[in-house]
């Protein structure tokens, strides 16, 4: 099953298939599409797996092994790539909370997010080559954008597994948190990103003209939220005046 939690502008999407280590089946794709539609308007989106063993362990081989023709394989790959593209193009920041290992298609889902936050004991592998196939959900291209073409070929071409520390070192993961504080940590990061400026910053980073970037700033500048925040800062920094006739 798939659970969608909506709370104060933050959408948390949890893939909960413990019997399959949160692997993605065709029905999971249906639920992902519906959940992404339902999350529209959220100011930040988190995707995670249930439990602490697997983020997403890839495609559900027991079910997907029924796809035996080029047409069937093509249709499945196009559909899941489209879902990963929706994650990547979600207007607000998207965080992959890597609560467990991300292998194969799971690693592809992870790199579709804007930011990856990992528990310190997890591992990541683009290990589709162990099945004599390759990433098909956009993961190879996104991996190359993160770590460079040479390293992407090394990782995906060999199926090499990296731990969280190495993934952070090479830029595949953005933050590594201790297992004991992982849940609190990723929620804190997600909550900090659940704001309109972060959404505008994502849009600018994704590529707009200088004039469009300035227009984004100007819209935020004239908004009530900016002036309310500015007033709070001014009031916080204002020094109290001494009472009339008082001494210093």
UniProtKB/TrEMBL annotation:
Pfam families: ECH_1
Organism superkingdom: Bacteria
UniProt keyword list: Fatty acid metabolism, Isomerase, Lipid metabolism
PROSITE patterns, sorted: ENOYL_COA_HYDRATASE
Gene Ontology biological process terms from the UniProt entry: fatty acid beta-oxidation
Statement: the UniProt record of this protein carries the keyword Isomerase: yes
Reaction equation(s) it catalyzes: a 4-saturated-(3S)-3-hydroxyacyl-CoA = a (3E)-enoyl-CoA + H2O; a (3S)-3-hydroxyacyl-CoA = a (2E)-enoyl-CoA + H2O
GO molecular function, a single term: isomerase activity
InterPro entries per UniProt: ClpP/crotonase-like_dom_sf, Enoyl-CoA_hyd/isom_CS, Enoyl-CoA_hydra/iso
SUPFAM superfamilies: ClpP/crotonase (SSF52096)
Function noted in UniProt: Could possibly oxidize fatty acids using specific components.
UniProt family annotation: Belongs to the enoyl-CoA hydratase/isomerase family.
Name of the featured protein: Enoyl-CoA hydratase/isomerase
Taxonomic source organism: Mycobacterium lentiflavum
């Amino acid at each position: 099953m798939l659970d969608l939690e909506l709370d104060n502008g933050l959408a948390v999407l949890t893939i909960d298939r413990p019997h399959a280590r949160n692997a993605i089946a065709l029905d999971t794709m249906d639920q992902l599409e519906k959940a992404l539609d339902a999350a529209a308007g959220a100011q930040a989106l988190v995707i995670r797996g249930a439990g602490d063993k697997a983020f997403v362990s890839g495609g559900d081989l027991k079910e997907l092994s029924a796809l035996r023709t080029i047409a069937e394989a093509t249709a499945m790959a196009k559909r899941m790539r489209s879902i990963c593209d929706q994650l990547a193009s979600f207007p607000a920041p998207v965080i992959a909370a890597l609560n467990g290992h991300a292998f194969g298609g799971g690693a592809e889902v992870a790199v579709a997010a804007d930011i990856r936050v990992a528990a310190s004991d997890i591992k990541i592998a683009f290990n589709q080559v162990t099945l004599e196939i390759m990433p098909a959900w956009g993961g190879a291209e996104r991996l190359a954008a993160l770590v460079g073409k040479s390293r992407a070929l090394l990782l995906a071409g060999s199926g090499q597994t990296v731990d969280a520390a190495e993934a952070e070192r090479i830029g595949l993961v953005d933050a590594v948190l201790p297992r004991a504080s992982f849940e609190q940590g990723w929620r804190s990061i997600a909550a900090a990103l659940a704001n309109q400026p972060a959404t505008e910053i994502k849009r600018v980073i994704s590529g707009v003209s200088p004039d469009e970037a300035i227009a984004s700033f100007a819209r935020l500048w004239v908004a009530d939220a900016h002036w309310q925040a500015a007033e709070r800062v001014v009031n916080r920094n204002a020094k109290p005046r001494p009472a009339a006739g008082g001494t210093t």
